[in-house]
Amino acid sequence: MGVFKKQQLKEIAFGLERSGKRFLWVVRKPMITDWENESSLKEFELEDVLPEGFLTRTRSKGMVVKNWAPQPAILGHESVGGFVSHCGWNSTLEAVVCGVPIVAWPLYAEQKMNRVYLVEEIKVALWLEMSGDGFVSADAVEETIRQLMDGEEGRAVKERVLEMSGRAKAAVKDGGSSRVDFLKLTRPWTDQ
């Protein structure tokens, strides 16, 4: 989703743990400002950036992966109940097509505008509260995840994203609007 400072990673960890929900969390290398020099960050260890004992305490509920995971394959798995996203369009489209509700945590550029659209207009995401500088507390992580998984707002978002998923899948099938428009665009290139 992005590169965070170690303190933000710790807040995420505490929020995930306190939520009591199962999770898969991909942790990327923390920001270089948190380390003495760049060479010390080349091969980081999860234990160096997460709260002490977190991996042991959450072993039965969660899985933490370093750096990368196959996001479309994960989102497409039936056990996934939610997705914390930076609100970039690729991730958003992957989540919507898979019918996965979103916790919206924008980091850069147009992502803040995307969040407004996802939460307020198409209603496939919940708003994650953050401070003016973008910091998110453990309480906000915990509360938003619980709301998504168990709350009324979360149920409404799940229903809406499933509806949108059906529409997205229909659009790319033979005769669907996206397929038809794509063929209109590319046909002149191949009819020469």
TrEMBL record:
The keyword Glycosyltransferase applies. Its EC number is 2.4.1.170. It is an enzyme of class 2 (transferase). Keywords: Glycosyltransferase, Transferase. The keyword Glycosyltransferase applies. GO terms for molecular function: glycosyltransferase activity; isoflavone 7-O-glucosyltransferase activity. It comes from the Eukaryota. InterPro entries: UDP-glycosyltransf_plant, UDP_glucos_trans, UDP_glycos_trans_CS. May glycosylate diterpenes or flavonols in leaves. Belongs to the UDP-glycosyltransferase family. This is Isoflavone 7-O-glucosyltransferase. It comes from Helianthus annuus (Common sunflower).
